[in-house]
Design goal:
Strand order of the largest sheet: 1-2-5-6-7-8-9-10
Distance between the termini: 49 Å
Number of strands: 11
CATH class of the largest domain: Alpha Beta
Structural class: alpha/beta
Radius of gyration: 22 Å
Bound molecules: iron/sulfur cluster
Number of domains: 2
Number of helices: 22
Strand content: 5-15%
CATH topology of the largest domain: TIM Barrel
Length: 499
């Protein structure tokens, strides 16, 4: 169904408030200077010497942000030995700040009506063949019963289309519905404890309403920061056609009281070097204006989609080697920021990413509307926005991570203890966040193994928990007593105990 989107006074035109753009501009300009970024990339040494690279790595290891010029130097590193040093430093930084924890979540698509016409997306308004659907309350409940009661997720990223059917009232109501579901499990009960939101670039008043419904991170990706490419990909008569409105959404979100914001670029629309530099400018602009940079950075890579204009000979598609370099440089440039790699990527790349400093992964993912339960027909399930590269179940992912020595964390304590925004960023920068997070990671991992783990996964996961408890005993003895008390209670079936 095509929704008329250009009628005066329509839903679309009322969404954009010009004063919520102009208030952030400096001398009438936004913080992405295309010419400057292109120049910084061009002027960087084509084969940086080892000393220059190692000085930059030392700065990252000291948990300091890199400048765009330093990022441009790293972009040009092609020497295999130096790339390996970059990888080792990225992993060391991740372990220093986040330890061996990987947070997992599931994407949950609630609607795919869309008023926009992004030329690379199968859900665009011009695609008359797309099956359009918005989940009802009952269908949302059915989905959450599977996510929280059968798979064992505690965190979701809920994804909404940009359309009156997915307006702010719908979003607020759907969040309440998601949080209301409780499901009995093998040894306790399951529930979604934290919902992150990926939704349109709303105005401050709407963002306040969403914040009041109790969310974790608010995500809006710029897709491409390159203005000419942006204009080509996002026709001007759509909401998304307004570059600055989207660019400043995270500023508005923070003004609306949302502490944690997630930024990202769809790598492959334009030159990855440019997008990478622009992401760094974006998080630095947030920090400069609002005192906190991005909580997470996402770097989805363009993959084929139904009715997309992106063909295999598109000039900016990112190969695996460059994609790995992107991940390394983000980890090095903003050492304390969360990094998300989704199941768009193949399992082999995601496993490598774990050794490069990423912090969050999804699993058992379904990206069709109603894809987790039987809420929709098989035909509707086949219509998805893009094709998944990693179809591992959560149980399989957890087992693979455990085999690599990584513990899966379902911790959502920070959001309920006020450890968000500047507070969590300061803890991360100071390297003290792990004081709470390791404990909560182990507690939630035990919960998950007891409620959902297969025999194979428990066989690998339970010894890992023993190892972690021994580490807590030596490294965090003052917390040992309360931790052991909570751990024993969880093993008896109590749930959601956290420090
Ligand atoms: Fe709509 Fe998002 Fe697709 Fe653009 S990318 S057409 S906003 S669903």
């Amino acid at each position: 169904m095509t929704v008329p989107i250009t009628a005066p006074g329509s839903w679309i035109q009322k969404r954009i408030k010009e004063d919520e753009i102009t208030k952030y501009l400096e001398n009438g300009r936004n913080f992405i200077d295309d010419d400057l970024i292109e120049r910084q990339i061009k002027d960087a040494p084509k084969a940086p010497d080892a000393k220059q690279v190692r000085d930059i790595l030392a700065k990252s290891m000291a948990i300091k942000d890199l400048t765009p010029e330093e990022v441009a130097v790293l972009i040009n590193v092609n020497d295999k030995g130096l790339l390996e040093e970059m990888r080792q430093t990225a992993l060391a930084i991740k372990l220093k700040i986040y330890d061996n924890r990987i947070v997992t979540f599931a994407p949950f698509y609630l609607g795919n009506y869309c008023v926009n016409r992004c030329t690379y997306c199968g859900f665009n308004n011009d695609n008359a063949t797309a099956c359009r659907k918005v989940l009802s309350d009952d269908e949302i409940r059915q989905e959450v019963e599977v996510l929280a009661g059968k798979i064992g997720h505690k965190r979701l990223i809920v994804v909404y289309g940009e359309h009156p059917k997915n307006d702010v009232d719908y979003i607020v109501n759907s969040l309440k519905t998601i949080y209301s579901v409780r499901v009995k499990t093998r040894n306790g009960h399951g529930a979604i404890r934290r919902v992150n939101v990926n939704a349109p670039a709303f105005c401050i008043d709407d963002l306040k309403k969403i914040n009041e419904a109790g969310i974790g991170t608010y995500q809006v990706f710029q897709e491409t920061y390159h203005k000419k490419t942006y204009a080509k990909m996002h026709p001007a008569n759509t909401i998304k056609g307004n570059y600055d409105w989207r660019l400043y959404c995270m500023h508005r979100a923070m003004e609306a009281g949302i502490d944690d914001v997630g930024i990202g670029a769809l790598f492959g629309l334009y030159d990855w070097r440019f997008e990478l530099m622009a992401l760094i400018y974006h998080t630095q602009a947030l920090e400069k204006k609002l005192g906190i940079g991005a909580h997470t950075i996402s770097f989805p890579r363009l993959v084929p989609a139904l009715n997309s204009m992106i063909t295999p000979d598109w000039p900016h598609l990112v190969n695996d080697e460059d994609f790995k370099k992107i991940m390394l440089i983000i980890r090095l440039a903003v050492p304390y920021t969360g990094m998300i790699i989704t199941a768009r990527e193949k399992a082999s790349i995601r496993n490598e990413a774990v050794q490069m400093g990423i912090t969050q992964m999804d699993a058992s993912s379904r990206i069709t509307i109603g894809g987790y339960s039987d809420a929709v027909t098989a035909q509707e399930k086949n219509k998805q926005q893009f094709i998944l590269g990693d179809t591992r179940s959560l149980d399989e992912l957890i087992r693979d991570l455990a085999e690599m020595g990584h513990i899966t964390s379902f911790c959502t304590a920070g959001y309920r203890c006020g450890r968000t925004g500047k507070c969590i960023m300061d803890l991360l920068r100071g390297g003290t966040e792990g004081k709470f997070c390791k404990l909560n990671a182990v507690l939630t991992f035990q919960e998950w193994l007891d409620d959902f783990g297969s025999e194979d996964t428990r066989r690998i996961g339970l010894p890992l928990i023993e190892k972690e408890i021994n580490e807590i005993r030596t490294k965090n003895p003052q917390a040992l007593q309360i931790f052991m008390d909570y751990h024993a209670r969880i093993k008896k079936g109590e749930r959601d105990l956290y420090l």
